[in-house]
Design goal:
The complex is a heterodimer of chains A (313) and B (308).
Chain A lengths: L1 H12 L2 H24 L8 H16 L6 H20 L8 H27 L1 H6 L1 H6 L5 H35 L8 E5 L2 E5 L1 H30 L2 H22 L9 H4 L3 H4 L10 H25 L5
Antiparallel strand pairs in A: 1-2
Helix pairs in contact in A: 1-8, 2-5, 2-8, 3-4, 5-8, 5-9, 5-10, 8-9, 9-10, 9-13
Chain B lengths: L5 E10 L2 E11 L4 E5 L6 H8 L7 E6 L2 E2 L4 H5 L2 E4 L11 H9 L7 H10 L15 H13 L5 E5 L7 H18 L2 E6 L2 H7 L2 E6 L2 E7 H6 L3 E7 L2 H11 L5 E4 L2 E6 L1 H13 L4 E7 L3 H11 L6
Parallel strand pairs in B: 3-8, 3-9, 6-7, 7-8
Antiparallel strand pairs in B: 1-2, 1-4, 4-5, 9-10, 11-13, 11-14, 12-13
The chains are: A mainly alpha (313), B alpha/beta (308).
Chain lengths: 313, 308
């Protein structure tokens, strides 16, 4: 299995295409952080206490409204608690340091990562068929299950590598443009009504983790289409289209009850952290179940097709 | 008798309602070059794909070195090295990386073994160049190296000479000789080119429309049957009369100064003796041995296929 992974990695990283994608990612990251620094160079480090005080008062006033929905009240309560903790312990908000920009940039650029991972996922099986190399690959003393698994794992590993690269490049370039001052400030979060501190690196990877679910699912979709239709352009095209159109359609169709069974309504689990699901009645457990069901079905289909179908190219 | 390296028993392949391969059975004995001959579309490639496990078998059994390809795939296929149609390689990798790639899929292939194969196929000077830059002949040679890496006992080559120039074909033929004679590897080679098979193979199986028509040693084909013979003689009239006495029912043709008929080797000698005894001068006896091609066409046309 280890040798199979080495083979798949060799095939991914010896292609100019892969390096072009990584170069584009690095270029866009640096360019975006440069643009951000250009258009909003001021991190307003000095008067954050004043702003925090203002927003604290505003939130407290809003909470006086008796008709507030419970969920909104809870969120306001959290904001108030965090603000009080900030002022008491003199911890400036993330937006006053490079982290605010880094976090925002990473979340946005993960869309680009999704597209790159889909290109690898959609090509990794189909390409063996279109070049005919599948024949020499399949006549080895290795089961087709292992072949397919090595390709899937290699795809996911590529995704992780790309994310690590995105993280490093973003932190460096944002730090260079905004300065590394304040890079030690923690992220604040609440557990059981108590404010806790979290290392920012850890926090950002936490965010990356949440958004990676979407990458994994779109890549799995591309992988499945790649295996069924043996056409990389089709796999890449359909997957990216589905991914992009869902971002528009999910909010539009959210009034329909059945939309809660749609994969891309569920992939963003952060909706449950804020307690504001896209469709009312969806819970964290529900979304995880839906994601798992799609995950299992798509992989089972890939596996069945790859194992059972004749290779006649 | 030694167990055959490859054994097909009543192998059938159906796709939908169409029967592609119908009840095919044959054995490839060890150490032979076994030719698989048939017109395009006869089912050669399908059969080979079933043998190497690329296609499933609808009915029947295929055993390689006694191991079933259906139930014991990984063991059975480990005895096989192959090229199915063109030797497709990763063009963006070097020749060496391609071999490294395949070597990792078998147990215990050393870097040294890879280099041995590279030398065997004469690619040493170009092995670190990208396959993109290789000629078709070089790719074919890389294909052979790839197929031999893990010291297979059975080498399967599907249409190996497609697109090769005469020098390349000759080279390939020489490898096959070396492999079978010196290393005891058995070879199954398919082709629709007869002349080539005649030069390469010890035994030939002819298939048509998914059915096995005949399996024979090449030497048997050569000896079999009647030969067209032309006698050049001085007294054609007298010779005709004599011939009708010796062989009353033998059809013959007359030409200027010569007599044409079909006969076995023994009969030719017999007729010659009679002519000489009757003082007919025999200037020349020309035997037109039936080529494999003639026999092949005869056999496949009996099946009702028009040869274009």
């Amino acid at each position: 299995m280890f040798n199979l992974l080495r083979n798949e990695n060799m095939k991914i990283y010896r292609r100019a295409r892969t390096w072009i994608m990584l170069a584009i990612l690095i270029g866009i990251t640096i360019l975006s952080s440069g643009l951000m620094a250009h258009y909003s160079p001021d991190l307003s480090n000095n008067d954050w206490r004043v702003e925090e005080q203002q927003s604290l008062q505003m939130n407290q006033q809003m909470m006086n409204d008796k008709n507030l929905p419970a969920q909104v009240r809870e969120n306001l309560q959290r904001a108030v608690q965090t603000s009080e903790y900030r002022l008491a312990n003199n911890i400036p908000p993330e937006s006053t340091s490079m982290w605010g920009a880094a976090n925002q940039l990473i979340v946005n650029l993960m869309q680009l990562v999704t597209i790159f991972v889909v290109i690898i996922a959609g090509d990794i099986v189909a390409n063996e068929f279109s070049t005919g190399t599948i024949k020499l690959l399949a006549i080895r003393p290795i089961s087709r299950t292992k072949l397919l698994l090595s390709k899937y794992v290699a795809t996911m590993a590529f995704g992780l590598t790309t994310l690590a690269l995105l993280f490093i490049v973003t932190c460096l370039s944002v730090g260079i443009f905004y300065g590394f001052e304040g890079s030690a400030i923690p992220h604040l979060y609440l557990v059981d009504n108590a404010v806790k501190e979290m290392n920012m690196v850890f926090y950002i990877w936490n965010t990356i983790g949440y958004h990676s679910i979407s990458i994994i699912m779109v890549a799995t979709l591309a992988f499945m289409i790649s295996t069924i239709f043996r056409s990389s352009s089709m796999a890449i095209g359909i997957s990216i289209f589905t991914f992009l159109i869902s971002q528009i359609l999910v909010p539009l169709l959210a009034r329909f009850e059945w939309m809660k069974y749609y994969l891309f309504t569920n992939v963003d689990l952060t909706q449950h952290l804020e307690g504001l699901p896209i469709i009312e009645g969806m819970t964290l457990g529900f979304s995880i179940s839906i994601i798992l069901i799609y995950f299992i079905i798509m992989n089972a289909v890939s596996w069945l097709v790859f194992n059972k179908r004749d290779i006649a190219v | 008798m030694q167990q055959p390296i490859l054994k097909l028993t009543n192998v059938t392949k159906r796709i939908g309602k169409r029967t592609i391969i119908d009840q095919m059975s044959f054995e490839v004995p060890r150490g032979e070059v076994f030719g698989f001959l048939g017109p395009n579309g006869a089912g050669k490639t399908t059969t080979i794909r079933m043998i190497v496990g690329l296609m499933s078998i609808t009915e029947g059994e295929i055993e390689i070195n006694g191991e079933s390809i259906r139930t014991n795939y990984e063991q059975a296929i480990s005895y096989v090295g192959g090229i199915v149609e063109n030797p497709e390689m990763y063009k963006y990798l070097s020749g060496y990386d391609n071999l490294l790639h395949y070597s990792r899929m078998h147990k215990g292939i050393s870097k040294q073994r890879i280099m041995e194969m590279v030398e065997l196929v004469g690619l040493k000077s170009r092995i670190h160049d990208k396959v993109k830059s290789y000629s078709l002949g070089m790719r074919q040679r890389l294909g052979v190296a790839q197929a031999l890496l893990h010291k297979p006992q059975l080498l399967i080559l599907d249409e190996p000479t497609n697109g090769l120039d005469p020098a390349g074909i000759r080279e390939l033929r020489d490898y096959l000789r070396v492999l079978t004679r010196e290393q005891g590897i058995s070879v199954l080679v398919s082709s629709h080119l007869l002349a080539e098979m005649e030069l390469m193979c010890d035994r030939i199986a002819i298939i048509q429309d998914g059915k096995l028509i005949d399996v024979r040693m090449l030497s048997e084909y050569k000896q079999e049957g009647l030969n067209e013979v032309t006698f050049q003689i001085d007294q054609v009239e007298a010779a005709c009369q004599l011939l009708t006495i010796i062989k009353p029912n033998l059809p013959y043709k007359l030409a200027e100064g010569s007599l044409l008929f079909s006969a076995s080797r023994e009969e030719i000698a017999e007729v010659n003796t009679h002519f000489v005894k009757a003082n007919i001068k025999v200037y020349e006896i020309k035997v037109h041995a039936k080529t494999l091609e003639d026999q092949f066409l005869e056999m496949t046309q009996k099946g009702g296929v028009k040869h274009v």
